[in-house]
Amino acid sequence: MRITCPLCGTRDRREFYYKGDAVALDRPDPAAGEAAWDDYVHNRDNPAGPTRELWYHEAGCSAWLVVTRDTRTHEIASVELASDVAANVAEAGA
């Protein structure tokens, strides 16, 4: 599998470290309560199909990326800088 880093270009996936579902960018409000934080920390979906994932470009530019990928075929639909995605999430919540 090859991932196109927005900063470095197309690279082999062995340059990257897989972190998990990109839902980690949608943190609950600090005052959201124990149930919201328990759900955020411990529960994840395991979809067959398109999903958004966090990847770290460990052997490259050290950027965190949000990769939209089909888990059945490994086809990558898009790659974005996680900082841009987090900024858009924060802006939408404001």
Describe this structure in words.
The chain is of the alpha+beta class and 94 residues long. 22% of the residues lie in helices and 35% in strands. It contains two helices and six strands, in the order E-E-E-H-E-E-E-H. A four-stranded antiparallel sheet has the order 3-4-5-6. It has a two-stranded antiparallel sheet with strand order 1-2. Strand 4 and strand 5 form a beta hairpin. It is globular, with a radius of gyration of 14 Å. The mean pLDDT is 90.
First-last Cα distance: 37 Å
Largest sheet: 4 strands, antiparallel
Look at the structure and give the mean pLDDT. 90
Can you give the helix content as a percent range?
A: 10-25%
- Overall structural class, as computed from helix and strand content, comes to alpha+beta
Strand order of the largest sheet: 3-4-5-6
Quaternary structure state of the chains depicted: single chain
Uncertain stretches of 5 or more adjacent residues? none
What is Rg? Answer: 14 Å
**How much of the polypeptide forms β-strand, as a percent range?**
35-45%
Dominant shape: globular
Structure summarized in a few sentences:
The protein is built from two helices and six strands; from the N terminus they run βββαβββα.
Could you give the topology of this structure?
Elements: E1 2-5, E2 9-12, E3 17-21, H1 34-42, E4 50-56, E5 64-70, E6 76-81, H2 82-93
Antiparallel strand pairs: 1-2, 3-4, 4-5, 5-6
Primary descriptors:
94 residues, alpha+beta, two-stranded antiparallel sheet, 6 strands, globular
